Amino acid sequence: MSIYEIILQRRTIRKYKQRKIDKDILKKLINAARHAPSAANLQPLKYIIIDDPETVSKIFENVKWAVYIYPEGTPKEDEKPVAFIAVLIDKEIKSTGYELLDIGLAVQNIFLTACAEGIGTCLLAAINREKIISTLSIPENYTLNSLIALGYADEKPIAEECEDSIKYYKDQDGALHVPKRKLQDIIL
Ligand SMILES: Cc1cc2nc3c(=O)[nH]c(=O)nc-3n(C[C@H](O)[C@H](O)[C@H](O)COP(=O)(O)O)c2cc1C
């Protein structure tokens, strides 16, 4: 598959097979992030891999899924992520003010690499940072930006051209539809 095909195929996944992801694959995803562009090449991002079931459950309790269709988009017991990656900013590395751009680029590297492995991902920004920082004992010199939920994909969301709403929705068969603005509407 070409990179373009993977980009078009990748969708946010919120239903996961209950199959462990090999640690080497999780490290490969971070290695993809490591090679992302970074403002002034300062590389302020750090990551925590969470894949022990007990901590994964604790983290799961502190994230919010799919607000537009709540609670329909929340993974059920046998659909939960099997791992998370926490995305952190190291405050001891000089700030450029472009950390969020660095994050976007690094996270997409993770997403595309995961997608090519059949692993579904969901970026989670609606999280209880205080609880997660305490669960993971994250030291004060890091900012917890977001989490990435991971697991082998167990759903196939459908991207479609946006007509009047950008809100994703589920059809009567339970498939998730994700409206994307039309090409002619975004090229000015
Ligand atoms: C910055 C950011 C924060 C997000 N936070 C959440 C979140 O907290 N919970 C969630 O279920 N999805 C979250 N998402 C996933 C979006 O809902 C998803 O990307 C969007 O619906 C488009 O779907 P797609 O990724 O399949 O193209 C987030 C995405 C981004 C880029």
TrEMBL record:
UniProt superkingdom: Bacteria
Pfam families with a match to the protein in the record: Nitroreductase (PF00881)
Keywords linked to the UniProt accession: Oxidoreductase
Family affiliation: Belongs to the nitroreductase family.
Residue intervals of the Nitroreductase domain: 7-152
PANTHER family: NAD(P)H NITROREDUCTASE YDGI-RELATED (PTHR43673), NADH DEHYDROGENASE_NAD(P)H NITROREDUCTASE XCC3605-RELATED (PTHR43673:SF10)
Molecular-function annotations in GO: oxidoreductase activity
UniProt cross-references to Gene3D superfamilies, sorted A to Z: NADH Oxidase, putative fmn-dependent nitroreductase like domains
Listed name of the protein: Nitroreductase
Lineage: Bacteria, Bacillati, Bacillota, Clostridia, Eubacteriales
Species the sequence originates in: Anaerobacterium chartisolvens
Keyword Oxidoreductase part of the UniProt annotation: yes
